[in-house]
Amino acid sequence: MKKILLSLLFGMMSLHAGEIKVAVAANVSYAIDDLKKAFNVLYPETKVQVTLGSSGKLTAQIKNGAPYQLFMAANMKYPEALYKEGIAVTRPLVYAQGSLAYLSNRKQDFKKGIALIKDATIQKIAVANPKTAPYGKAAVEAMKNGGVFEAVEKKFVYAESISQTVSYAVTAADIGFIAKSSLYSPKMAHFKEGVNWADVDPELYTPINQGMVVLSNGEKNSEVAAFYIFMLSAKAKEILQNYGYLVP
User: Fold this and answer.
1) Are 208 and 135 a contacting pair, CB within 8 Å?
2) Cβ atoms of residues 95 and 238 within 8 Å
């Protein structure tokens, strides 16, 4: 860790006013504004341009030449692949660990655990596309380990990102598997724990380590380096914890 940070610092020229382009997993959409504000307290001249999306789609864009300079993914798989291919110039580091929650617009009996989604009253279940969204993959893993997957697969309403899953969970579906961090948005305050949402048993799925890398477009860019270092700082970790993440 120290070697990586020192390498970035020594590679920095004097910080200047400019814009950096950051690709961010959709589940971080609720925390990213506060992260940007805290960064701009330190570096008020730097504009952070954020593109949100599923980690799989963002990775595809990066491989196809999208000009992102830093990538904050929803798991480690995609940044590790970019590093192996030489598109990322830093080894992936965990900046946060995400967790799953159930969300419904109606009162639910969450004491039933994951067996709840087998109920006849649950006709549609919002799930992020497991092929491109790590939280969708984790949701499927939880359902399989909970012994309910085959019984409920026909109920799935697939979303392209975790933010879209939140929308589907309270509109087009009866319940959804979402990133717990989504619940920390002020817009979600009316949803009550134990009534509209609950944690998915963490024993049912692999912890979601979210990885970050500097991309080749951001190599030796002082402002990209500054944002990267900020994301590993105590202040950034404090903000992420406020949004329901665990931090390394």
Assistant:
1) yes
2) no
CATH of domain 2-97+208-242: 3.40.190.10
Q: What tokens appear for 16 in the block?
A: 């200047």
- pLDDT tens across 159-195, in order? 988 889 999 999 999 999 999 988 988 889 999 999 9
27-38: per-residue pLDDT in tens? 898 899 999 999
The pTM (predicted TM-score) of the whole model is 0.76
Domain definitions of the chain by residue range: 2-97+208-242, 100-204
Q: Hey, is 214 helix, strand or coil?
A: strand
- Return all residues near 61 (Cβ < 8 A) that are at least 6 apart: 23, 53, 68
Strand partners, 70: 22, 214
Q: Are 89 and 216 in contact (CB under 8 A)?
A: yes
* DSSP H stretches of helix in 48-187: 55-63, 77-84, 134-145, 149-152, 162-169
C-alpha dihedral sign at 161, 164, 170, 172: negative
What are the start-end ranges of the E strands in 77-224?
A: 93-98, 100-103, 125-128, 156-159, 175-179, 197-199, 208-214
Q: Does 3.40.190.10 match the CATH number of domain 100-204?
A: yes
The reply to whether domains 2-97+208-242 and 100-204 share a CATH topology is yes
